Amino acid sequence: MNFNLSEEHKLIRDAARDFAQNELLPGVIERDEKQHFPKELVKKMGDLGFLGVMVDPKYGGSGMDTISYVLIMEELSKVDASASVIVSVNNSLVCYGLEAYGTEEQKEKYLTKLATGEFVGAFCLSEPEAGSDATSQRTTAIDQGDHYLINGTKNWITNGGRADVYIVIAQTDRDKGSHGINAFIVEKGTEGFHIGPKEDKLGIRGSDTHTLQFNDVKIPKTQRIGPNGSGFRFAMKTLSGGRIGIAAQALGIAGGAYELALKYSKQRKAFGTEICNHQAIAFKLADMYTDIEAARMLVMKAAWDKDQGQSYDKSSAMAKLYASQVAMDHTVEAVQIHGGNGFVKEYHVERLMRDAKITQIYEGTSEIQKIVISRSLIRE
Ligand code: CAA
Ligand code: FAD
């Protein structure tokens, strides 16, 4: 067992750290305040290979492993979780699904552009009446011979207003339940496809979240991903990898808050000494660091499982469940260590605290992760 990063992994981590510090940090407060999608930065992340980290270079990707992806996600998330969720959705939910299950034609047409950042992708599973209960899809895709007609509403879609390519999950045969669900590629601008207003959110405010409406959207049969009826399993497999990305995001948010809290506690004085010398503060730092390291082990184990070709449904759920709790708990503590300064924007920790909450909700709530983990334990 080797807990050390390879030289290559260290280089990737350092490149992501430099990008986060030099490019993401300068405008992060303003983007959060104005809910500004970081379009130019997305382009730069594409140039660095961050948008198709694990994609085969023959489709324009970086050909790296999941550990590299985790390192990139962690470093970006220490500074800007709005930027990192764009990276996460594009990599895990869009590129992965297309590469693993798409046809050669679909890969040539879409994956090559998504992996380089020329296109941005979105993944559309959630609906007003089907969030956690994802098998209860109300959006329908009716087989019309040579095409499907899609009707329905998707909500909470990340990159919703900015994407070029949307992976849409829909019910093609209600009688077959989860076996009557399919995944489709829908291009922006397709007739009948409407993008609703942007959500005004608590956190990850630079990320673009929209409701999408599909009114008789005509999709050629060649836009279906995988065999007929495989869409729900496609979504679940895709989400297992996605959960590693969000777990790494949570790890980064917690780590970013910890680093700021440590630095502040060594500078700020109260009662004649730096506040880190008060045991109540020192013990918070000890708890933060220990929990972050524990979360890192779970996140890396899930990434390693995926890289080894082993099952990662359970390990990714465990990583997300734990890392998101650590992010929530310790961003609150980071605000506490900053005292009044923690409550204002320029110290960054209040934003990290607001951003942390979403990691317990999207890509399956913490309750859903417990369902995935416990079912797996009982099956084993
Ligand atoms: N791999 C392959 N197949 C799977 C699977 C997996 N990981 N998980 C389930 N399946 C299969 C099951 O084996 C079952 O097949 P059979 O009928 O042949 O046995 C079928 O799928 C249905 O599974 P369940 O009976 O387990 O379905 P369920 O209704 O009990 O729901 C659930 C399972 C785990 C709760 C699932 O609905 C779920 O994950 N919900 C959460 C949805 C979610 O995570 N949404 C995220 C949206 S994307 C997002 O959020 C992005 C973002 O923010 C950035
Ligand atoms: P509900 O399913 O209504 O759950 C409400 C509460 O009940 C939760 O606490 C939940 O854990 C609990 N609950 C539900 N069922 C059970 C159960 N069986 N046992 C125990 N507790 C249960 N979706 C996409 O498809 N694509 C995206 O890009 C995307 N991006 C998002 C971005 C943001 C900012 C947000 C807020 C959401 C995003 N989502 C996206 C949707 C997200 O995945 C869902 O919000 C999430 O899966 C929960 O669904 P829900 O909101 O309908 O909550």
Q: Would you give an account of this structure?
A:
This protein is an alpha+beta fold. Helices cover 52% and strands 15% of the residues. It contains eleven helices and ten strands. The strands form three sheets. The chain has a four-stranded mixed beta sheet with strand order 1-4-5-8. A four-stranded antiparallel beta sheet has the order 2-3-7-6, covered by helices on one side. Strands 9-10 form a two-stranded antiparallel sheet. Helix 1 (7-24) runs parallel beside helix 4 (66-79), helix 4 packs antiparallel against helix 5 (81-101) and helix 9 runs antiparallel to helix 11. The longest helix has 37 residues, at 231-267. The relative contact order is 0.11. The model has no long low-confidence stretch (mean pLDDT 98). Bound molecules: acetoacetyl-coenzyme A and flavin-adenine dinucleotide. Flavin-adenine dinucleotide is lined by residues 89, 123-126, 131-133, 156-158, 201, 204, 209, 358, 361-365, 367-368.
Largest sheet: 4 strands, mixed
Percent of residues in helices: 40-55%
End-to-end C-alpha gap: 24 Å
Strand order of the largest sheet: 1-4-5-8
What is the strand content?
15-25%
Run of helices and strands: HHHHHHEEEEEEEEHEEHHHH
Category from helices, strands and their pairing: alpha+beta
What ligands does this structure carry?
acetoacetyl-coenzyme A, flavin-adenine dinucleotide
Any idea what the radius of gyration is?
21 Å
Number of helix segments? Answer: 11
Q: Show unreliable segments.
A: none
Mean pLDDT: 98
Tell me, briefly, the overall form.
Answer: globular
Number of strands: 10
